[in-house]
From TrEMBL:
Belongs to the ATP-dependent AMP-binding enzyme family. Residues 582-660 form the AMP-binding enzyme C-terminal domain. It comes from Erythroxylum novogranatense. InterPro entries: Ac_CoA_lig, ACAS_N, AMP-bd_C, AMP-bd_C_sf, AMP-binding_CS, AMP-dep_synth/lig_dom, ANL_N_sf. Keywords: ATP-binding, Ligase, Nucleotide-binding. This is acetate--CoA ligase.
Length: 698
């Protein structure tokens, strides 16, 4: 019954978009808005794409969008199979094109797209480009952390590298369906390893190389990989991080729990560390360079069903245990390719740079798969975006003539703080489309990105999506309609977002509430690895009949969507999703910590920071040394990116009589909104609140 209300859904925002193009007098050009100026209402701010941009855009006007959107929701099977037909399928999918049960009340949630279709995503990313005349086109420009270190691969060279690794993996016994953990920094070997796994039907699970040994061990124990792929060390900024040591610790930890890994394939990253300095376990550890280059440069593709798993990616939820988000092959392929193409108005002459790491979903869908499925030239940057100076990004943009630049608001804010001079000393004239992802982009950062970085020429695609969604869900299509700074605008083709209230009732028109989706889309995740029940409980049970995103959202009078942040116990730090429960469980593992409660608070650069209320074991005094050691515990157990920004000593925590911590109050204390604490009379001990306030700035 997902079709009910469909027509009104697209008309709802359709009409308002249509108004823009009919010159309804609502549009004012704000390209000239000066920095820092805050207009009365963001809602009324419209930024028009230039005529020049629209003339060349894939979706040049609202009518074209509406026409395609209408078809995508009225005839999803036809819409998506037309697009899917542009890829190579060894065998075409069966009927129906897709099937879904999206309503827990009707049985288990089940989403399938292109079932029966036989394909391979690596073939479509690489071989297909080589065979269609792009063999000599650059697939990857690689830029090292240290200026001056660079490399590149054409599509045919990429194919050879992928095949050598694929052959090696097959030779050591990796088979279709086996898991492979990849713990690598942004070397070219990272996308190569992902593609090699996909080529042989193995399921990759990339673990962001900023995660600690404990987090890595947890993931190894969950998915039990045949092989772990890593490198000895990496330089990030001026620091050298010895990744192999972290892997050694993780492997020791997992073998204590009877998960032993027989093979650790280690790339020698000479820029960071020589092999002689690397700790080694003979019999288990193998240097990539010693074995992989000996293998043949061609490798038969393992053809897989569209619904065979492609990868697992762990993400944070509201409990301490990370969730293994599982994506399958066919739908993900079609969806990432299509979203990439339209949201960035991709043309074959583009040079595309996404600053995300392949350890997160953005690097999966929009460094590796989406762009390569389009035969794009992708910049892969190993280092820190402000190293050795805050102009490094624009130096790289000019060097490779980057045309599409996709990043996170946290980076925009930090570069904005460093000053315009680092931007304006570079030409940036190649840029034509900008993108933002990971957290809501505040209007002032949006304007700086637009005016200063993009010289008021480049539309910004503020793409809202999630690890779970596989690809963009709500995003501008540059050239299609006016933008509003800070709004992700309208849904992508085939996506029917809805806003529901506390009771799960869909609300119409301008409103605020919980963001849900009421139909499946090809890139949707299919399950949580090994825990379909948690999949249903977390995403489909809160509001039966819908997929619940965990985000709050406002729809304005013109139908534009504005994401307002997580409404669950997940915080978004520099665009990284962190579960408060994960940080709490790390803190309470400290022998001197009795209890911890973690909330997010507004942070100027990171978007949200981590604020931890900590109750110490009876008799232990609070000290600076202890504060540092608590933070260190979190770094060791999760990773540096999850380190609390603030530790607040809490002799007691505000709890209800049934013992539930009232986080609402803690959030207000963290934000220092002390006059907005609300009703504290239901607390078991109302005076703990005064105690906490008294200790706020100690
Ligand atoms: C947030 C990252 C506002 C949101 C792709 C979501 C955003 C979570 C945006 C997913 C955006 C992502 N505007 N919020 N453009 N993009 N988010 O799984 O809270 O790492 O639920 O995927 O990031 O984070 P994840």
């Amino acid at each position: 019954n997902y079709r009910i209300g469909m027509a009104s859904n697209y008309l709802r925002h359709g009409e308002s978009i249509a108004n823009f193009s009919s010159g309804a007098g609502k549009i004012s050009r704000i390209n000239a808005v000066t920095l820092g100026e805050s207009p009365a209402s963001e809602e009324n701010d419209l930024v028009l794409p230039s005529d020049e941009f629209c003339r060349q855009a894939l979706i040049p006007n609202p009518q074209k969008y509406l026409e395609m959107y209408k078809r995508s929701v009225e005839d999803p099977a036809g819409f998506w199979s037309d697009i899917a037909s542009e890829f190579y399928w060894k065998q075409k999918w069966g009927q129906p094109v897709f099937s879904e049960n999206f309503d827990v009340r009707n049985g288990p949630i089940d989403i399938q797209w292109f079932k029966g279709g036989v394909t391979n995503i690596c073939y479509n990313c690489v071989d297909r480009n080589v065979e269609s005349g792009n063999a000599d086109k650059i697939a990857i420009y690689w830029e090292g952390n240290e200026p001056g270190f660079q490399d590149s691969l054409t599509y045919s060279q990429l194919l050879q590298r992928v095949c050598q690794l694929a052959n090696y993996l097959k030779d050591v016994g990796v088979k279709k369906g086996d898991a492979v953990i990849i713990y690598l920094p942004m070397l070219m070997e990272l996308p190569i390893a992902m593609l090699a796994c996909a080529r042989i039907g193995a399921v990759h699970s990339v673990v962001f190389a900023g995660f600690s040994a404990d987090s890595l061990a947890q993931r190894i124990m969950d998915c039990k990989p045949k092989v772990v792929i890593t490198c000895n060390a990496v330089k990030r900024g001026s620091k050298t991080i010895q990744l192999k040591d972290i892997v050694d610790t993780a492997l020791a930890e997992s073998s204590k729990n009877s998960i032993s890994i027989d093979l650790c394939l280690t790339y020698e990253n000479q820029c960071a560390m020589k092999r002689g300095d690397t700790k080694w376990q003979d019999g288990r550890d193998v240097w990539w360079q010693d074995v992989v280059p000996k293998y043949p440069t061609s490798c038969m593709v393992e053809w897989v069903d569209a619904e065979d798993p492609l990868f697992l990616l762990y993400t944070s939820g509201s409990t301490g245990k990370p969730k293994g988000v599982l994506h399958t092959t066919g739908g993900y392929m079609v969806y990432t390719a299509t979203t990439f193409k339209y949201a960035f108005d991709y043309k074959p002459s583009d040079v595309y740079w996404c600053t995300a790491d392949c350890g997160w979903i953005t690097g999966h869908s929009y460094v590796t798969y989406g762009p390569m499925l389009n035969g794009a030239t992708v910049v892969v940057y190993e280092g820190a975006p402000n190293y050795p100076h805050p102009g490094r990004c624009w130096d790289i943009v000019d060097k490779f003539n980057v045309t599409i630049f996709y990043t996170a608001p946290t980076l925009v804010r930090s570069l904005m703080r460093d000053g315009d001079q680092y931007v304006t000393r570079y030409s940036r004239k190649s840029l034509r489309v900008l993108g933002s992802v990971g957290e809501p982009i505040n209007p002032s950062a949006w304007r700086w990105f637009f005016n200063v970085v993009g010289d008021s020429r480049c539309p910004i695609s503020d793409t809202w999506w999630q690890t779970e969604t596989g690809g963009f869900m709500i995003t501008p299509l540059p050239g299609a309609w006016p933008q509003k700074p800070g709004s992700a605008t309208f849904p992508f083709f085939g996506v029917q977002p809805v806003i529901v209230d506390d009771k799960g009732i869909e609300i119409d028109g301008a409103c605020s509430g919980y963001l849900c989706v009421k139909n499946s889309w090809p890139g949707a995740f299919r399950t949580l690895y090994g825990d379909h029940e948690r999949y249903e409980t977390t995403y489909f049970k809160p509001f039966p009949g819908y997929y619940f995103s965990g985000d709050g959202c406002t729809r304005d009078k013109d139908g534009y969507y504005w994401l307002t942040g997580r409404v669950d116990d997940v915080i978004n730090v520099s665009g990284h999703r962190i579960g408060t429960a994960e940080v709490e469980s790390a803190l309470v593992s400290h022998p001197q910590c009795a209890e911890a409660a973690v909330v997010g608070f507004e942070h100027e650069v990171k978007g949200q920071g981590i604020y931890a209320f900590v109750t110490l074991v009876e008799g232990v005094p609070y000290s600076e040394e202890l504060r540092k050691s608590l933070i260190l515990t979190v770094r060791e157990q999760i990773g540096a990116f999850a380190a609390p920004d603030k530790i607040h000593w809490a002799p007691g925590l505000p709890k209800t009589r049934s013992g539930k911590i009232m986080r609402r109050i803690l959030r207000k204390i963290a934000a220092r909104q002390l006059d907005e604490l609300g009703d504290t009379s239901t607390l078991a001990e109302p005076n703990v609140v005064d105690q906490l306030i008294a200790l706020a700035d100690c």
